[in-house]
Amino acid sequence: MAERRQERATLLDGARVAEEIKAEVREEVARLEREHGIIPCLVTVLVGDDPASAVYVRNKVNTSIALGLRSEHHALPHETSTEQLLALIAQLNARADVDGILVQLPLPKGVDAMRILEAIDPAKDVDGFHPVNVGRMMLGQTALPPCTPAGIIELLDRYGIAIGGAHACVVGRSNIVGRPVAQLLLQRDATVTICHSRTRDLAALTRQADILIVATGRVALIRGEHIKPGAVVIDVGTNRVTDEETIRALFGERAEERVNALRRRGYTLVGDVHPAEAEKVAGYLTPVPGGVGPLTVAMLMRNTVMAARQRRLRSN
Ligand SMILES: Nc1nc(=O)c2c([nH]1)NC[C@@H]1CN(c3ccc(C(=O)N[C@@H](CCC(=O)O)C(=O)O)cc3)C=[N+]21
What we know:
It comes from Pyrinomonas methylaliphatogenes. By secondary structure, the chain is an alpha/beta fold.
């Protein structure tokens, strides 16, 4: 008898794995205080009033507090200058009680984001965005890895998905996800293809991937035809969709719940992967929300504790 493929992809429960990681971090925080009197402190900086950024930062603050970390938040007006931000960073760099500095992106157009990121002390760069940390990661000396890429690797590991020897295809080449996740996968001995907006035959490449990672910010860029049957699909997209028609097209028979969310909140979150089509082809799939997003926050907490240990105890 012919082997029957499973009807639907297994969902990779990022939210659950994030809870596991956070529980580990909480224990580590308690131990640091008990044994060394150290309470790691994360400082968040938000410039302007983008509503999505405000949600993300609040989530980071609340999670820090829930895990026993200290949290300090700076909300600055949209008009803040590069010089004013640099002055704040210099103060935070100099403070012995500050372990992690997170400047929420995107910054307003008037601010030179690269100058800001380069000004953060690499030892306090819990986002892993400073060129020194990016360079160290390239060399395999992963001091503070970027949170979303590190979270994706953690998710694959905790589900027992083999990376070594697999063909991993990354769609997207951003500094915060595409490039670094490709690098981490390479370090774990995957064969890595990086695709982007100028790639000629996207489907021909993505269809060869055992592990497909999509981080483009384009709703439903990846359809059923882009996916190798049984592949692991990691959807990093977090797009706010506000029209009911798109939601119905994306979720098929399961649209009702999403349409309700839209009516309640004014939007619903969707990824870069067409969920109804992907479920029929992929072997494993991360949902949006509840997939990669929560892992990003969990890894930020872990990085903050790691930064505290490395800087204050000179060990890890
Ligand atoms: N300096 C900096 N560091 C970042 O790590 C950073 C950033 N800037 N700018 C924006 C992106 C985006 N990002 C997310 C974090 C958590 C969720 C998350 O928890 N999402 C939930 C849903 C949240 C919701 O309902 O809106 C989920 O997917 O289940 C999503 C996206 C971090 N980023």
